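INTERNAL AUDIT FORM
Audit reference: QA-55
Scope: verify that the stored structure record matches its stored sequence.
Auditor: D.O.
Record contents follow.
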Amino acid sequence: MVNMNEVKFTGRLIKDPVLRETKSGKPACNLSVANNRKYSINGEDRIETTFMDVETYGASATAAAKCLKKGAPVLVDGSLKFQSWESNGQKHSKVVILAQRVQFLEKAQLAAQAAQPLAMAA
């Protein structure tokens, strides 16, 4: 059996990117992306929104923080990562996308992205 963990996700940022540094000083950026899925049930059109947190590192983190703003459309290419933590005695968990590539989808973003290195190492 082959193990595969690969995801492509498109959507719009629901808030501005948050740039930070890892403990080793490497740039890291957190993005929150919403995707709308349209479908019909019994002829009634519906929309289901999925929200995903995205993490990216290195040059892509710096470029995302510099070029993206709330509402910007993006294509995220990466893998799923499970995170768990405890806060005030409560256990929490979530699944995030560990982005290997964040592609900007608007012309102004594309121009800014062209000036940035795109290599993304996780």
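Auditor finding: record pair retrieved intact. Confidence is low (pLDDT under 50) at residues 118-122.
Action required: none
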